[in-house]
Design a protein that fits this description.
The protein has 135 residues and is an all-alpha fold. Helix content is 81%, strand content 0%. The relative contact order is 0.18.
């Protein structure tokens, strides 16, 4: 559910550009940003313990897996490597596919964190909860 929601949000070119900028310029985790907003929409405001569990999972997974895959994919974009042959393009596309699969693993884990603690957004200001979750 979180993965499908995030995919839908990410399809907007302006959202994608903003999230990538936050990732590249400020080292913010896009998955965590999206999770905070999704959790607000689905369950309301994150409590401190749920946020901590999500952060720990994201930090461990992103640092040890996703960030390394992203680094390899970006390295394969270098002009001196990209010009070698079509094999580099194919390898880069394969790494991008694995990187996306790694993101999904994290998103599924974050969704499980949310579902464990739940919450009920009924009566809550979802926009306000989203802002507080991102603060």
């Amino acid at each position: 559910m979180f993965w499908a929601w995030a995919d839908d949000i990410y399809r907007d070119a302006h959202v994608q550009e903003l999230l990538l900028r936050l990732q590249d310029e400020f080292a913010l985790d896009v998955g965590m940003l999206l999770w905070c907003v999704w959790h607000a929409h689905r369950f309301g405001e994150l409590d401190r313990l749920t946020l901590l569990h999500g952060y720990e999972r994201a930090e461990k997974w992103s640092g040890n897996v996703t960030a390394k895959l992203r680094s390899v994919r970006r390295e394969l974009k270098r002009d001196d490597l990209a010009g070698l042959d079509d094999g580099v393009k194919e390898l880069r596309a394969s790494v991008a596919t694995v990187e996306l699969a790694a993101e999904k693993v994290l998103f599924d884990a974050l969704e499980r964190v949310s579902r464990k603690t739940g919450g009920d957004p009924v009566g809550q200001n979802r926009e306000g909860a989203g802002r507080r979750n991102l603060a």
